[in-house]
Amino acid sequence: MKAFTLRLLPFLLILGTGVPVAAGTPTPNPRQPSQPASREAPRWTIGMSQCNLGEPWRVQMNADIKKASEAHPEINVIFKDAQNDNLRQVAHVEEFARAGVDLIIISPKEAAPLTKPVSAAFKKGIPVIVLDRRVLGGDYTCFIGADNRRIGKAAGAWIAKFLGGKGKVVELKGLMTSTPGQDRNSGFREGIKGSGLEIVFEADMKWLEPNARKEMESALARFPVIDLVYAHNDPGAHGAYLAARAAGREKKIAFVGIDALPHEGQMYVKQGVLAASFEYPTGGKEAIDAALSILGGKQVPKEITLSSRVFTRENIGKGGEWLSN
Ligand code: FRU
């Protein structure tokens, strides 16, 4: 018992906001504020478990959460970064649950390994918002994210049109044990169905630019003609571009990515590095909105689907174009 308390102590000290955090004692839902709202004393503590902060998109997600939460002095968000390690992320969720936070937001690395701790926290009575990547089953309060299958399908249709219905394509996939990778792949295959596009090379670059660059080097070495690279995120598309540029072939190949952050994908489109980037909103603000509803005792939908735009050279100056349903 003593060791348990000692282990929790640093965590409880970080919380240090006067929030009633009793280990092992779930607060009933809806959460009852223990004291009146004031700038000095947040009523509720939210634990945010981020799978990694290696990509600009995830840094943006945390920034969006921070910004949205700062407008609400009644909440205090504690951020944890699992550094792309499933076991570390499992420990973070368990730690949040043990400390008795009022709500957990998680953007999980992989679906299977994070399912159990999320389910355990949820069953303990802690509301859980799952953001962007999914867990398995339904033991959570609310999922928030854009429809990756729809984005993949729209990317496929856009690419088929862009290439005039035929061409040799490289697909650089996101981590295929994470749900966005699976959906951006299956949606894309659906989108190009019936066209004359040929996938000459495909590889799992696990969302990471250096991996994408390496995989693209292999593709370039094997295929003298490549018309386009479809990468499941913008870091992947950029890694492929760098490999092609090093081989002097970047002008003959078009690059398409997903995320479309203003200072990443949208900027690459403006610079002519990418032919298109499909927006993948972080959902950070929406997660805080949902958290406030849940903590206030209101019902939220089990599934909140965010809309997405495509940015191309033609529409980049006009705010992109919304994907249809
Ligand atoms: C960042 C990221 C984004 C991608 C998202 C999918 O880690 O790879 O680029 O859109 O995760 O979950």
Describe the structure.
- With 325 residues, this protein is of the alpha/beta class.
- It has ten helices and 13 strands.
- It has a seven-stranded mixed sheet, with helices on both faces.
- The protein starts with a helix and ends with a strand.
- Bound molecules: beta-D-fructofuranose.
- Residues 55, 57-58, 132-133, 174, 178, 180, 207, 233, 258-259, 280 line the site of beta-D-fructofuranose (FRU).
- Beta-D-fructofuranose is lined by residues 55, 57-58, 132-133, 174, 178, 180, 207, 233, 258-259, 280.
Summarize this, please?
Helix content is 40%, strand content 21%. The chain contains ten helices and 13 strands. The strands form two sheets. A seven-stranded mixed beta sheet has the order 7-6-8-9-10-12-13, with helices on both faces. It has a six-stranded parallel beta sheet with strand order 2-1-3-4-5-11, sandwiched between helices.
The H-level CATH homologous superfamily of the largest domain, spelled out, is Response regulator
How many angstroms does the end-to-end distance come to? 54 Å
Order of helices and strands: HEHEHEHEEHEHEHEHEHEHEEE
What characterizes the major β-sheet?
A: 7 strands, mixed
Query: Which ligands does the model contain, each kind named once?
Result: beta-D-fructofuranose
List segments where confidence is low: pLDDT < 50 over at least 5 consecutive residues: 1-29
Architecture per CATH nomenclature, i.e. the level-2 architecture of the largest domain: 3-Layer(aba) Sandwich
Number of helices: 10
* Counted beta strands: 13
Q: Which shape, going by the Cα principal axes?
A: elongated
- Beta-strand percent range: 15-25%
Strand order in the largest sheet: 7-6-8-9-10-12-13
Quickly name the level 1 CATH class of the largest domain: Alpha Beta
Name the helicity range.
40-55%
